[in-house]
Amino acid sequence: MSNDPYTMDMFNEPPKRPRQMKLLGSKPLERNTDPETSRTAHKYLDTGKVEQEVCWAIGHFPDGCIYDDVVDLLPHRRVHSIQPRFAPLLRKGFIVATGEYRMGKSRRYQRVVKLNKET
Questions:
Q1: Per-residue pLDDT tens over the stretch 47-97
Q2: Is the pLDDT of residue 19 over 60?
Q3: CA-to-CA distance for 95 and 61, rounded, in angstroms?
Q4: Helix or strand or coil: residue 91?
């Protein structure tokens, strides 16, 4: 029996494997554990259009904005369609994190982002 906390849990069972993702290059497409409804929704959601709308909303705040500000400007979009767009936009360099945090409606601090004027 191993006492190593990194290889066994409190019931002496091996750690669970992380969710596996199908990869194409470095872009994750879907998890093997995703429900069928998520896979179907992905086919009908134009993520490029949503990313454009999120960039448009962020552009309305020259001093930067938080997630709640973007949600307020896009009332026709569901919040679960908006939130996942931030990470790809950061990776692509369209938006940048300012290093600042502001309190949101949930009373939790959210990262401030703004458009990258260099792109």
A1: 888 899 999 999 999 999 999 999 999 999 888 888 889 999 999 999 999
A2: no
A3: 12
A4: helix
Residue with tokens 């709640």: 68
Nearest of 116, 81, 119 to residue 98 by alpha carbon: 116
Q: Rounded distance, CA 77 to CA 71, Å?
A: 8
Angle at CA of residue 30, ends 27 and 32, nearest 5°: 130
Sequence-separated (6 or more) residues with CB below 8 Å from residue 5: none
In three-state secondary structure terms, 115 is strand
pLDDT at 25 exceeding the cut of 60? no
Q: What is the value of pTM for the model shown? A: 0.67
Beta carbons of 113 and 90 less than 8 angstroms apart: yes
Q: Which domains does the chain have, with CATH numbers?
A: 43-115 (1.10.10.10)
Helix, strand, or coil here: 56? helix
Q: How far is CA 105 from CA 15, 56, 66, 77, in A?
A: 36, 21, 10, 18
In one letter, which amino acid is 103? M
